[in-house]
Specification:
The chain is of the alpha/beta class and 382 residues long. The protein has 2 domains: 184 residues, Rossmann fold, CATH 3.40.50.2000; 170 residues, Glycogen Phosphorylase B (Rossmann fold, 3-Layer(aba) Sandwich). Helix content is 43%, strand content 16%. The strands form 2 sheets. A 7-stranded parallel sheet has the order 3-2-1-4-5-6-7, sandwiched between helices. A 6-stranded parallel sheet has the order 10-9-8-11-12-13, with helices on both faces. The longest helix has 18 residues. The relative contact order is 0.13. The C terminus is likely disordered.
Length: 382
């Protein structure tokens, strides 16, 4: 029997977000007869508890900065002790803080780009620095993985030498299964059963546009007073969101919750899922909602537009005039039961066919095996 490949899965934070959900799903589906996973996170959080429940060793070396030179020596000592065969870095911060140590020890690194660190809305100097950083990182890894074709394309547009293999994020459909029984979240949160529940699960940051959603929801209530908005998440715009809800006098119509671990239960309670992001790699939260048979409203950006076909399995709206577009979409979908049902059925089909966690994991396992068998640790897959 051949020796197991020991893989260090490296992630920026222990809070549960898209990249962290991806890592958990990957680790859970890895073939343990061939692979031995261990996790390094750069902050603590509920993900570490989940990993412990899965009997996966997890460690924290704290930093919230990318390219944190002060931590590189600590990471190198950690890698020496762990004796891993390869490293899979999820996101810029993880890769930038593990790459030097890995290269100095001759350990190959695989880099999954869950979303680029450079964006159109950044100041030119910041964007230029971020692009140069990503150019360096992607040029020094054994394999780069893009989570969507648009994610790959946006990389090629800014980094001419960029090469990657596209592996879509996958959802564990045994966990996100609309046919299962779930907790009564509405009763727990005092949300009326007769309400049409609109759901947002994401970080409260400008990237995810929670404030625009609150404003649009407030405007759409005049057309459909049965709606209730549940927003689950934390972030730097959370306090501002609380103030706006209070200012609008919508405490009985908008419920704010911190991040929770019972995401399938939360999703099961909802009628419509909204993701008004300004950009996305390939949004796992959206895929989870679709796997649960939710009617979705999302912005026409990056990887999202690969998942949602407008008026087939959801509504796609432009980020230009976002509040107005969200308001219109909420009014349209909340009042059209036939369209909601069509979207629900087609959403489940989309995830079943294209975004399966088992298929995703097998593709990544194949890369792991090829990288380890490659003696020179050069870029082996394009």
């Amino acid at each position: 029997m051949s020796k197991k490949i020991k893989v260090l899965e490296c992630i920026r934070q222990g809070q549960i977000g898209g990249g962290e959900s991806h890592l958990l799903s990957l680790v859970e589906n890895l073939d343990r007869s061939k692979f031995e996973p261990v996790v390094l996170s750069f902050t603590d959080g509920p993900m570490l508890k989940r990993l412990s429940e899965m009997n996966v060793p997890a460690h924290v070396i704290y930093t919230e900065k990318p390219f944190d030179v002060r931590k590189w020596g600590i990471v190198k000592n950690f890698l020496r002790k762990q004796k891993v065969d390869l490293i899979h870095a999820h996101g810029t911060r993880a890769n930038s803080n593990v790459l030097w140590a890995a290269r100095s020890l001759g350990i190959p690194v695989i880099y999954t780009v869950h979303g680029w660190s450079f964006h159109q809305d950044q100041k030119p100097i910041v964007r230029t620095i971020r692009i140069l950083g990503e150019k360096y990182l992607t040029s020094k890894t054994a394999v780069n993985i893009s989570v969507s074709a648009s994610n790959q394309q946006s990389g090629k547009e800014q980094i001419k030498s960029f090469e990657s293999v596209v592996i879509n994020n996958g959802i564990d459909q045994t966990k996100f299964n609309p046919g299962k029984k779930y907790k009564n979240i509405r009763a727990e949160l005092n949300i009326p059963n007769e309400s049409l529940l609109v759901l947002f699960i994401a970080r409260f940051t400008a990237h995810k546009q929670p404030l625009a959603l609150i404003e649009a929801f407030a405007k759409s209530l005049s057309s459909n007073s049965k709606m209730h908005l549940l927003m689950v998440g934390d972030g730097d715009q959370r306090k501002q969101a609380e103030l706006i809800v209070k200012e609008y006098g919508l405490e009985k119509k908008i419920t704010l919750e911190s991040f929770r671990q019972d995401v399938p239960d939360i999703l099961a309670s909802a009628d419509i899922f909204v993701l008004p992001s300004l950009w996305e790699g390939l949004p796992i939260g959206l895929l989870e909602a679709m796997a649960m048979g939710k009617a979705v409203i999302a912005t026409n950006v990056d990887g999202t537009s690969e998942v949602v076909q407008h008026n087939e399995n959801g509504l796609l709206i432009s980020t230009e005039g976002l509040v107005q577009n969200l308001t219109k979409a909420l009014i349209e979908l909340s009042s059209d039961e036939e369209k909601k049902n069509k979207f629900r059925i087609n959403a489940i089909k989309t995830v079943n066919v294209r975004y399966n966690a088992a298929n995703m994991t097998r593709s990544i396992e194949d890369i792991y095996s090829k990288v380890v068998s490659n003696q020179n640790n050069a870029l082996v897959i394009h």
